[in-house]
Design a protein that fits this description.
The longest helix is centred in the first third of the chain and has 15 residues. By secondary structure, this protein is mainly alpha-helical. Strands 1-2-3 form a 3-stranded mixed sheet. The termini are far apart. The radius of gyration is 32 Å and the shape is elongated. It contains 8 helices and 3 strands.
Length: 166
């Protein structure tokens, strides 16, 4: 007994798409003419949608399309740091990186780090107003790196010698 004929998978897909989108041969002549007119209008210089755009708009749309807006906003924040915190504080502090929404700032001394910690809410508000795409939610301030006696050439395992200072 021969097997009954079953349509192949590609023909099933074709029939399904034809049912969803319709048969092109059954579309009206007016629809084809309208589509041909729209295609002709797009190819005309200065036609609809072909207006010249500024370079800033083109680069902005390209950056958004490629997903560069966040990294560009972060680099713009780093460049614009002196206008965010002021010239004097910018001389003594440097934004290092943005990790998990927290801006990490390194200061020259603990006094400048304390000053920046006191201004934390003002600086966060200014960043949110001027650079909202940067994604800064909080600020972490660190002072200068103090020397460590735990690493280096002259270290000893354990507690070490106790006659170092006297």
């Amino acid at each position: 007994m021969p097997k009954p004929w079953k349509p192949a998978e590609p023909s099933k897909v074709y029939r399904h798409l034809r049912a969803v989108f319709g048969d092109p041969s059954k579309r009206g002549v007016d629809a084809r003419r309208r589509r041909a007119r729209e295609l002709d209008a797009d190819s005309v210089p200065y036609g609809r949608g072909r207006e010249p755009r500024g370079l800033g708009d083109v680069v902005g749309s390209l950056a958004a399309e490629l997903g560069w807006t966040e990294s560009l906003a972060r680099s713009e924040l780093f460049v614009d740091w002196s206008s965010v915190v002021g010239d004097e504080l910018a001389k003594h502090s440097t934004p290092m990186t943005i990790e998990d929404g927290a801006l990490v700032i390194r200061c020259d001394s603990t006094a400048w780090a304390t000053q920046l910690r006191l201004m934390r809410s003002t600086v966060t508000t200014t960043i949110a107003e001027r650079h909202p795409e940067a994604g800064v939610e909080s600020i972490r301030v660190s002072g200068p790196d103090a020397p460590t006696w735990k690493r280096g050439l002259r270290t000893v395992q354990g507690r070490g010698p106790r006659d170092t200072y006297g």
